[in-house]
Amino acid sequence: MLVDEFALRHGVYATLMYFVLYFALLLNQSFTGRRLAIKYRKLKKPFSKYYNVTDRELLRADRAVGNTLEQMPVFLTLYWLAIFASSIKNTGTGTPSSVALSGYVYVLGRLLYLPLWLISGSSPRGLHPMVLISTVPCYLVQIFCALALFNAVQQ
Q1: What are 27-71's pLDDT values in tens digits?
Q2: Which of 46, 109, 115, 152 could lock onto 89 through a cystine, CB 3.0 to 4.6 A?
Q3: Transmembrane segments in this chain: where (predicted)?
Q4: Class of domain 5-154
Q5: Rounded to whole angstroms, how far apart are CA atoms 50 and 27?
Q6: What is the Cα–Cα distance from 90 to 26, expressed in whole angstroms?
Q7: CB 41 within 8 A of CB 95
Q8: Domain residues of the chain, as ranges?
């Protein structure tokens, strides 16, 4: 087989988990917007579901979806290229198994984004450092996959 079976299986699992998480975040965004629209209507206050940065709860739901979507093409491209390349050249940085398992770390980081944002939120100066507990591991996984890919094509 061209691709390591373990890497392929866990790569598929991690990717499916990522998509399930993404759609769960979309549902959360939709339900949050709907619930808040009803709440604001009862309070007779103006409400905009789109580009609303004044309501912290809606902003959190929007940013969870937006950040996940913004990172999706970069992560999935690097992830799968690294799985395939490291399967062909199974040496050095990023064995097929370690690349595949890094996908779970990435999904866990994305999963933590929403609750960490809820706990810490943002300030006028930007995000609270607690959100970095979620985002930094995700960036490190992307760097790891890029290094594994680079290493595989150098050999």
Answers
A1: 999 999 999 989 989 999 888 777 777 788 888 888 899 999 999
A2: 152
A3: 12-31, 100-119, 131-153
A4: mainly alpha
A5: 15
A6: 37
A7: no
A8: 5-154
